[in-house]
Amino acid sequence: MSPSCVSKKAGLLLFPLLSMSAITPMTLYASEPPKVCMVLDKGGKDDRSFNESAVLGFNRAIKEFPVNKTSKFVEPKNDAQISQFFRSFATSAKCDLIIAIGYNPSEYLPDLASKYPNKKFLAVDTNLEGKNTTKNIRSITFAEHDGSFLVGAIAAMKSTTGKIGFVGGMDIPLIHRFETGYSAGAKYINPKIKISTAYVGITPDAWNNPAKAKELAHAQYNEGTDVIYQVAANSGQGVFDSAEQMNKKSKTKHYAIGVDSNQNWINPKVILTSMVKRVDNAVYLAIKDFSNETFNTDHTTFNLKDGGVDWAYDEHNKKFFTDAQLTEINGIKEKIINGKIIVPDYYKLDKK
Amino acid sequence: MNIIRPIAATIIGLFLGLLVTFFAGENPLNVFLIFATSGFGSTYDFGMTLTYSMPLILTGLSVSMAFKSGLFNIGAEGQLTMGALAAATAGALFTSVPAFIAPIFAGICAALAGGIWGGIAGYLKAKRGAHEVITTIMLNFIAAGIASYVTVYLLKDPNTQNPQTIPISPNYKLETFAFFDSAPVSSALFLSVIVAILVWIFLYRTPLGYEIRAVGSNESAASTACISISKTQILNMFIAGSLAGLVGVGEVLSRAECFKLDFSPGYGFTGIAVAFLARGNPIAIIFSGFLFGALQKGASDLEIFTHNVTSDLSLVLQALIILAVSADGLWEKILSGKKVKL
Lengths: 352, 342
What we know:
The structure holds two protein chains of two kinds.
Chain A: H1 3-13, H2 24-28, E1 36-39, H3 50-64, E2 72-74, H4 79-90, E3 97-101, H5 103-106, H6 109-115, E4 120-124, E5 137-142, H7 144-158, E6 163-170, H8 173-189, E7 194-201, H9 210-222, E8 227-231, H10 237-249, E9 255-260, E10 271-277, H11 279-291, E11 299-302, E12 309-311, H12 323-338, H13 346-351
Parallel strand pairs in A: 1-2, 1-3, 3-4, 4-5, 5-11, 6-7, 6-8, 8-9, 9-10
Antiparallel strand pairs in A: 10-12
Chain B: H1 4-23, H2 28-40, H3 43-68, H4 76-93, H5 102-128, H6 132-154, H7 188-205, H8 207-217, H9 219-224, H10 229-245, H11 247-256, H12 267-277, H13 282-299, H14 302-305, H15 313-326, H16 328-336
Helix pairs in contact in B: 1-2, 1-15, 2-3, 2-13, 3-7, 3-10, 3-11, 3-12, 3-13, 4-5, 4-6, 4-10, 4-11, 4-12, 5-6, 5-10, 5-11, 7-8, 7-13, 8-10, 12-13, 12-15, 13-15
């Protein structure tokens, strides 16, 4: 049975009342606008962080550009599903642009891309430059270390105890890259500062375990840490909870720093700022370029200069910063952009 | 009668499950078609269905094997983890094993590792009286811990951020059949079927198999007949464990070509359902394993082609089928035509 015959049969068999099926509209149009499909990473679309950012960009682009309304994103529940989702997207679902969010789904792309050279692919968080044999993958990474340096400096400025913390999600090089930048930034402000680090786990489930992250944050706050930077997708919510609880118990102020999305609004009492990583823009631009037929297949790094990474400053966290601090933070940002501050990059440290 | 019941149960389960999708706002016929196409629509889809079925047949056999001597093996998940880890470790470290022996060598490693893991639970049951349900569940966690440690600290593949071991040497790879269009179906497919037949012969045509069944049906009678209960239980759990361990052959040698942490979407637990639906019959397990494999594969496209139904529907269907097949009172009533007190 060819894949297309399902949609026809399915269309015939639909009850008129229930014609909500995603497949029916495909049979109605002769020539269709391009269809975009996206596979998210573990953590889920409601992580208020990495994946949610991707979904926001996706939805924004779907609204603005002439893209097939059956465009769709899915959340894989286990590893086995990822390759199947990609395969179905490339074949029976007839997607034209296929997006992989996160390093884990991205690793399936090179094989898929060489098998379906007429389709375009976007990989977020992995550099696939060397594996792009059929020249149809655009890959995007972010200068996470630069943004993390900035929030590390902010953490050190706000810390009164001289101890700050870091809670990572999954223990992988990508997250160590955040950590290295963060501690370098903190030491730039206060060379004697103590930094404690912890990781939620070593499997992708670590992105989805707020309870464990909360325990880790509790332990760090109890040791005298007063600012924690979380890079843990959905698990990070636990760090915010922990900071709020600690504030109820003690006089010292406990803060947390969000990641990926601007998370300041989630809990304005404790969230000092967020290291935003504009996954939404990466997805949005890819869909925009694709619908304008200007989709290039290079590797791009988003950094502080183009706003791909940044620290979030808005009405929710204005109260935490004095004008002098603002000038200092923006000064550091300028210096990183100008190359006056070279932030250590874990990826390059690792290879020496 | 023995055949009617699981088939009728499957139909009832499917019907009820699809009815659920109706209340979720989907057209059940449409959902069923998506299921069918996703499971059997192309040679690739069919290949993936087989890929899911192979481990389920083996874990089903493992659960059913333990059940024959009255033991409940919840530990197939841990046993298959150890088996796959052993196969991947052998493939990564002993690179000089020649190509025609290598897969067999890896298979023996997998069976041994799974067997030892099952055997530990058998030993604790027989010699220490620790209940096997408790010990096998706990051994699952220990297996997961060991697998994490080996994967992340000892054999980590440096070329990826994913938690997986270094790839196995080419000698170990089982060629996948081109017919299935890049679905990882290799000769490991026949392994599951052959093993199922061997298990049947072992249980029903050998003295040892007879002893195992004797212990399962009446322990004290078996003991009186000079069958060593503890020996039988340990041996039985060892065999059950090695059956689950064999999952590693297909998953590592032909699918992933390395050990990926958390590669199993719960094969060990679904195996319990597979064994139940087949009522423990090794030959029937081939078919029930295939059915559950098809459910798992079929569900994966639901997310893509429907609005309100996700791949979790396969769990709903599995649950309903098991409920239907295990509703003893209902079946007696239907099959005997008499009124039975429920």
